[in-house]
Every structure is written in C-alpha cells, then in structure tokens.
Design a protein that fits this description.
Helix content: over 70%
Radius of gyration: 18 Å
Number of strands: 0
Oligomer: single chain
Length: about 150
C-alpha cells in the first residue's frame, strides 16, 4: 500500500464512489423533470446544508481559513471549479446518459494526479500511473463503443 493510504481512506473512497454513482443515476431521473441547472442548484443547497450540520455537530468553524488574501481563490474554486463542473456534468448526462456522463466525468481521476505532478510537484508512483492508464483506456473504449453503435 502506498505511503499515506489507509484502509479507512480506501473504504471512504469506495463509499464515495458508490454514493456518487447513485447520485448520477438519480440525477438523470431528476434532470428529465426539472433540468440540469435546477438539479445542480438543489444539490448544492442541500449538500451545503448537510455540511453545515456536520460542522455544527463536530463543533468546527464554518468559514475557518477564509481570509481577505484567499477569498478570491475560494470563490473561484466554488463558482468555476465546482459549480460549473457539476453544471456541465449534468448537462452531459442530459444530452447523453448517466453512464457516459459518469465515465467522462471520472476522467478527472486521471487528470487530477497529472496536474498534481505538474503544478504541485507531487511524486507519482507506478500504481497511480497504471490507474491513470486504466481509467483513460476504459473511458476511451466506452466512448469509442458508443460511436460505433451510432
């Protein structure tokens, strides 16, 4: 196991992946009824409320670490990186299907480590490289198969 990985962390990743898969499938159903923009907005509102309750229960500060010198970075991450990414994700699901939307969205699992190496100078081990290759290969095969059917 790579340094820093724990069984608890791996279990949380698996639980997160399963819940995100359910979110994608149920989101496809919801998009048909209300559209991608309301779906994204409602998800963010309820998600924010749940996180607020968790912070209160754990007696953690709500906006700890947000200062005038980093507020624009936080806003950028909130609006562009998170908000627009999810909006585009649900638009992709609305225009295709939950499977294709999820697979293309999960390509971020391959892009993020590469950006971490380039921007943050983080090391990347062989398992991570193999994982990136597998994710990109799987996504490519799925997209290629879809085009072959059409």
């Amino acid at each position: 196991m790579q340094e820093g990985n724990t069984v608890q962390g791996i279990l949380m990743v698996l639980a997160g992946a399963a819940l995100f898969g359910l979110y994608s499938v149920l989101g496809k159903i919801s998009i048909k009824k209300i559209g991608a923009i309301p779906q994204t907005s409602i998800s963010f509102i309820f998600g924010s409320f749940v996180l607020l309750v968790v912070l209160w229960v754990l007696d953690k500060p709500v906006i700890a670490g947000v200062w005038p010198d980093n507020v624009f970075i936080v806003l950028y991450l909130s609006v562009f990186v998170t908000g627009l990414a999810y909006l585009f994700y649900f638009q992709a699901i609305a225009l295709s299907n939950a499977t294709t939307g999820s697979i293309t969205f999960l390509v971020k699992a391959a892009i993020a480590p590469m950006l971490a190496v380039i921007i943050l100078r983080e090391p990347m081990g062989i398992p991570a490289i193999l994982g990136i290759v597998l994710v990109l290969t799987g996504a490519g095969l799925n997209i290629f198969a879809k085009f072959q059917k059409e």
